[in-house]
Here is the input.
Amino acid sequence: MTSRLFANGGQGNGFGTGAVFWTTLSTILGAILFLRMGYAVAHVGLLGTLAIIALGHLVTIPAALAIAEIATNQRVAGGGVYFVLSRSFGLRIGGSIGIALYLSQAISIAFYVIAFGEAFRPLLAQAVLHWPWLPLDMRLLTVPTLGILWAALRMSGARLGLSLLSVVAVTLLASLALFFAGPRLYSLDLDHAIATIPHADPFFYVFAICFPAFTGLTAGVGLSGDLRDPKHSIPLGTLAAVGAGFVVYVLVAVKLATSASLDALAADPLVMSRIALWAPIVPIGLACATFSSALGSILVGPRTLQALAADRVLPASAFASWLRAVRPSDDEPLNAASLTTLIALAFVVLGDVDSVAQIITMFFLITYGAICAVSLFERFAGDPTYRPAFRSRWYLSLLGAVLGGVFMFQISTGYALLSIAVLAVIYGLVRASLRDRPETVELLRGSLFQAGRWIQLRTQRSMAAPDAAAWRPCAVCLSDTTFQRRGALDFLRWIAHRHGFATYIHFVQGFLSRKTSEESKEALTRLIKLVGAIRGNVQVDTMVSPSYTSAFTQLIQLPSSSGMENNLVVFEYEKAEPAGLEPALQHLQLATATGFDVVILGLSPRGYAGMREIHLWLPTGDYGAANLMILIAYILAHHPDWKHAQIKMFDIVAAADRDARVEELRELVRTGRLPISERNVEVIVPEDGHDRASLVNRHSRDADFTLVGLRREAVRKLGPETFAGYDDVGNVGFVIGVSDVEIDRDEPASEPADEEADVADADDTETADTVPAAEAPEPDEAAQNGRE
Here is the structure.
């Protein structure tokens, strides 16, 4: 019958805070306390040992505080720490760490069983003296002990284990009391506190061996499914056990340093029995502590495995079904316990306490770091549903998460890399098994939201007085042909890949109503899937509006999610259907008058073809726009889709200006202000009867994308004629620039012209006259720019 110390009645097995406290404390006060604290004092000195205890608790105390915080915010169901991680990080990340946690729990069983055998080494040595034929092999004891644990678990499960903790608790307290009552032989001064044996082991090697002493905090949490009130019992029991364990380890280290010589501490793992008033009490205490720790681990490990199987994290479905089966009478995961015992058996046969301790240390450091990260991210995410009754401090969680990784590499770079590699393999397997199960991880999404919010606010403040030389595209596009053609969407994802930002809005015409709202939501879902399929870094949304003009007016006033001001508008149309130009022509002057550069994409059935050549045709007399075109081409060429592309640049000038222009462009190339090879720059003198469109058709018919610079005054005067005649080339991007863009960061940008333009009314499609008359070119100049 379960002791009243642990039972609380009620739900599940009805365990209370005492179960968490004693399960945790008996695991903490285990093998390392009795077998390796003397070794630590001998090799790193008393001060070094106290430093190990302090450093170990710099990870475990933040983890304990994080567990207490998380447990008071949500119901911690079966699986303990795994449940917390998987519900915070999602099944992919949480499941991967959960498998690593389970392996560390299974290996811990072997660790404690091997240490249990060490308590009987003196008896076995005496037996060998009487029976010489008997081998001095501790596995003769440890393997049967593991079998007894498994049998006990099958017979009575968690209630038997927790009942035995009452006996263990009393024995532990008695052994420690008799140990502290032993004689004191040395005074405690600085020289004695820092003394070590010759040729001592390195500090972090000793730390790796001793760290499992501080890892018992997850033992009590693993009983979460058997507790009456996990939100109350887990924080209180865990923190009390960790605090008590810290005090006991400090006192034991001081007592060892003042009660035995360094040589004795280094040579005898059971040196505590020499100090205690009654020597046999120490092996008895060790046996009880290690047996209870092993029993606690064999209770917790199968529950973690059963929770993993219940979440279908494990790849083999039939195998997972077998593992998640429980005994109907008490929900004991017997199949998971059998597999856990087999894993532990493999390490028991290995029989080396120190080797097993280092393996356990790595996996527990990963787990504790992840627990601290959950608390940190929850605080950072700012989710209003995260309202724990107990709160840790964010800097403690950060400290625990960082130190977990630092200690891994300080202990052993090889073991650390191996552990990370194993975790990566596990993650790959888990991700493959969960491929058909999409999940939304609220914690990560909230953290990304807060990070994006912080970056956006800081970026916006830094852009209060923007530097024209630092121009980068922040593009917007409004289209109702999203699912008929992808030309504009592809262009946006290319320029937003690394150097810029892009927002694509699907336009739904109509008045806002339930019907149009549902239509826009459905379109947004399709659009998100489309962008995900083409791996585009484009912000997408939908807009319902009664007319394209009203929608466009809203669009150019939208704040950018990047924190920068939007500065580039992209229109699109099919070259075979000139009527599709109307939205661009009607709203071009509105866009440029409000400070937007414009790209009008003329799309052809050839699309972007092989994406190997980008041709630039500079606008005559407007070399600020030329810089804009060069930057756009340069950004496109740095997208992986265009990684094999080369940029060619063409300029059309009068015969008298050719030599000067050639030398000017070559000088720009030589000084690095143009990211184009000199041999790819060509200055053309047009022949009689050849306008710009015919020259573009002749020289760029094999180009995959052609950028043609235009002056907005020419577009205003000539209208659709400006875009006519480019039938022999593929996709064309007509660029109208208003920004004063410099492509050399060392060259200060010139002062922008003092320009005043009244923006036409949103419903007025005639906006050409908003450009000041002083800027309007003469008719001949406009015709030349439009046709040449």
